[in-house]
Amino acid sequence: MKDVLLAIESSCDETAAAVIDRNRNILSNVVATQTELHEPFGGVVPEIASRAHLERLVPVVDRALRESGAELGDLSAIVVATEPGLVGSLLVGLSAAKALSLALDVPLVTINHVEAHLYACGLETGREPFPAIGLVVSGGHTNLYDCRSPVEFELLGSTIDDAAGEAFDKVAQILELGFPGGPVIEAAARNGDPRAFAFPRSMLNDPRPLLSFSGLKTAVLYTVRGTPGSSAEVPPLTDQRRADIAASFQAAVVDVLVRKCEQALRQGNRQRLLVGGGVAANGVFRSALADLSARSGCEVLISPKEYCTDNAAMGALGWARLERGLFAGLDADVVPGLVRKKSTE
Ligand code: KG4
Ligand code: ZN
Predict the structure, then answer these.
(1) What's the structural domain count of the chain?
(2) Which CATH number goes with the domain that contains 282?
(3) What is the torsional sign of CA 95, 99, 102, 108?
(4) For the whole model, what pTM was predicted?
(5) Residue 209 in 3-state DSSP?
(6) What distance in angstroms lies between residue 251's CA and the mean position of ligand 2's atoms?
(7) For 273-299, what is each residue's pLDDT tens digit?
(8) How far is the CA of 267 from the centre of ligand 2 (A)?
(9) Element (H or E) spanning 86, and its range?
(10) Quick one: which ligand is closest to 138's CA?
(11) Are 168 and 57 contained in the same domain?
(12) Which of 141, 168, 297, 335 is the most exposed place for a label (fewest CB within 10 A)?
């Protein structure tokens, strides 16, 4: 009999399941993305997302079990992300997790998806990377945390407008590059000059752990389409101009994220930084974080690339909660929009 848990993730537009053993080894990690369904709309359409989860969840769980070699009877617990996310999408995952927990008579463990992004940073090291400052940069969140333990995350601050990933997605739309924005902007930026445009870096002089990306997005919009009320002619959007704008935009986001992390490390007096979420897959950001580590002497653990965008392997966090007896009941509910200040609250 194996001692493994099944983790389910359905908070946004990825249907995912993973089987993970007690030593946090990922025995299988299956992710069904819905990119092709949402692409025509340039963003995630909640109703389409929840319907797609409904169709895909059972096959994805089946495949995760098969690939891990585990059977339903081997499961010690069912872990599911219940917050934050799209309400319909979260409900599909939670309902399936409750059904499995009830049918197999094993504990149900609920996790916070954003905290799981941070837990993913320790998956390659084989040890739990706490205490630390944590930055989650995804399509829906740009949050800084003080991470005291796997079950104590205190939200320090976040973006006051757009999330960093959202800015990548919107700028990709402005540049007519496709969806999701992060990977296509990163690719276009390879042929561009990051110093071609001096885009704004907001809130850098603000001592609070707050970030802002909407001014940057608007600056890109005006560069591409012209400033409203101005009669100045806008140059055509050639491939080179597009690449230069992409590279300059990416440089601005990376600058802001790195400097806000440095500030949080200093203020929190922490020597370790965790960075997770979809934007952490960005190569320029990853090398800027490596420079930060070299410069500051802080340990920087970035989520392994395959666990940056949404996945269920980061549900390994469920083991940490399970080991502390933090189970959920069958009356557990989803918490779509809110981020708990502390996971123990
Ligand atoms: O964590 P994630 O998969 O979903 C949420 O929880 O939101 O993050 C998705 C976001 C998208 O906005 C996408 O554009 C961004 O992560 N992203 C990237 C890269 N890959 C994905 N941003 C910058 N560079 C990338 N390589
Ligand atoms: Zn995410």
Answers:
(1) 2
(2) 3.30.420.40
(3) negative
(4) 0.93
(5) coil
(6) 22
(7) 999 999 999 999 999 999 999 999 999
(8) 26
(9) none
(10) 1
(11) no
(12) 297
